[in-house]
Design brief:
Layout: H1 10-21, E1 25-26, E2 30-31, H2 38-52, E3 57-60, E4 66-70, E5 80-85, H3 98-113, E6 122-127, H4 140-146, H5 165-175, E7 190-196, H6 201-205, E8 209-215, E9 217-226, H7 243-257, E10 266-268, E11 272-275, E12 285-294, H8 297-305, H9 307-314, E13 319-328, E14 331-332, H10 335-347, E15 352-357, H11 363-366, E16 372-377, H12 393-410
Parallel strand pairs: 5-6, 5-7, 7-16, 8-15
Antiparallel strand pairs: 1-2, 3-4, 4-6, 8-14, 8-16, 9-12, 9-13, 10-12, 11-12
The protein binds (2S)-amino(hydroxy)ethanoic acid and manganese (II) ion (2 copies).
(2S)-amino(hydroxy)ethanoic acid (HGY) binds at residues 130-131, 138, 359-360.
């Protein structure tokens, strides 16, 4: 009798990952599959078909989080939860997020095929909008589910085309009206999420599995500078209220604020929206994003809280508005799950390394609800949020076998 880990199929997992990678494929083997879009729904239908083929029960909650449930011998026992997200960055790769959902499905399939009965039910969740690429911030589905934020706190967030989150969600739920519903929030026994590392540690240290110890904190801001538009040819510079020039001054000042000789702090200006965005008109408005991360909550607080004053002191002649729209505190994962993952890796005779996560994940918001942890697999050169993102079939299958083993342990 094979155990669930031995029943994991590397070929089936890889084939399903490649099937998903075709939904929203972009040049360079990348994927652009935003949340709450027809592409997202096409991917979800594919997943649902596979889940139903092993008798898993499918349901959707008010935040459009998608749930696949495998029964346990004790129906009322708190389930063991795994999963990740199916949405990608606009210029994303084939593995970020979707790997954890398909690894969860593969674990359910392996449990099914090995005839393993677990006491606890096991659920796989696909969280809505983890990336925050279309609607900022990320992790809306897991924040709504965990009660970190009420779902309607996101209603008025608009995507680059001006679509309201509430409208995109309503349209999505209407398109999936045929699927059973479940309420927001439940109390799992434990949560384990499988994910590519998105960093270089495992590959550099030659380890197969990352036993994730926690996640650093993240804060997102949008800074809006408002000046006055003018003719590029006739307006003297001395009379201009140029939002682009003030953005340059503001970012230079923020670079100084965010100095860290140890290179632990992460400060990114990744999105800049300029109005009117024409070559021969002075910009009257610039909105730019700040993504600030650090493992120490105090550093995150002090540097983040200094942003508004730093920008105000740096600009010359524009109005300043700073809005914070995401604040995920650093979290430490639970020894119950860390140990289950470490023991599962040992049982699978693969090498492992304990390490923190530089990327944020939905797991960050599950921590207050139940014992939580993650499993990392190596990714080539640590590249992610990039079409070149790659993990090998063997690496992905190894992580999935450890996941199946850990889930079986926690669900016993
Ligand atoms: O941005 C992040 O850390 C995650 O990969 N979305
Ligand atoms: Mn991810
Ligand atoms: Mn990501």
């Amino acid at each position: 009798m094979t155990g669930p880990a031995e029943a994991v199929s590397e070929a089936r997992l890889w084939a399903r990952l490649m099937d998903m990678a075709r939904i929203g494929a972009i040049p360079g083997e990348g994927v652009n599959r935003a949340c709450l879009t027809p592409l997202d729904r096409q991917a979800r239908r594919l997943l649902i078909g596979w889940a139903e083929s092993i008798g898993a029960a499918v349901s959707v909650d008010p935040a459009a989080n998608l749930w696949l449930r495998r029964a346990g011998s004790e129906a009322e026992a708190a389930p063991v939860l795994t999963g990740s997200h199916m949405d990608t960055q606009p210029n994303g790769g084939r593995f970020d997020g979707i790997y954890g959902v398909l690894a969860g499905l593969e674990a359910l399939t392996a449990l099914h095929e090995s005839g393993t009965v677990t006491r606890r039910p096991i659920e796989v969740v696909a969280w809505t909008n983890e990336e925050g690429g279309r609607f900022a911030p990320g992790c809306m589905g897991s924040m709504a589910w965990s009660g970190c934020k009420p779902l309607d706190a996101f209603a008025e967030v608009r995507d680059p085309d001006g679509v309201r989150f509430a409208d995109a969600l309503a349209e999505h739920l209407a398109e999936e009206a045929d699927l059973p519903r479940r309420p927001l929030g439940n109390k799992p026994h434990a949560y384990v999420e499988a994910h590519i590392e998105q960093g270089p540690r495992l590959e550099r240290d030659g380890r197969d599995i990352g036993v994730v110890t926690g996640i650093q904190g993240s804060r997102w801001f949008t800074v809006t500078l408002t000046g006055e538009t003018a003719h590029a040819g006739t307006t003297p510079l001395a009379l201009r209220r140029d939002a682009v020039q003030d953005m340059v001054r503001a970012v230079a000042a923020l670079n100084a604020l965010m100095q860290d000789p140890a290179d632990v702090l992460r400060f990114t200006v990744g999105r800049i929206v300029v109005h009117p965005n024409t070559s021969n008109s002075v910009a009257d408005r610039v909105a730019f994003t700040i993504d600030l991360r650090h493992p120490d909550a105090a550093v995150l607080r002090d540097r983040g809280d200094a942003i508004a004053a730093t920008v105000a002191a740096a600009v010359r002649n524009t109005g300043v508005a700073v809005e914070e729209n995401f604040h995920a505190l650093p979290v430490a994962f639970d020894p119950l799950v860390i140990d289950a993952v470490e023991h599962a890796a040992a049982a699978q005779h693969v090498s492992s390394l304990r390490l923190p996560s530089g990327a944020f994940h939905d797991a960050q918001f599950v921590v207050p609800i139940c014992p939580t942890g993650m499993i990392f697999v190596p990714c080539r050169n640590g590249i992610s949020h990039n079409p070149a993102e790659f993990s090998s079939p063997a690496q992905l299958a190894s992580g999935t076998r450890v996941l199946a083993d850990a889930l079986a342990r926690l669900a016993a």
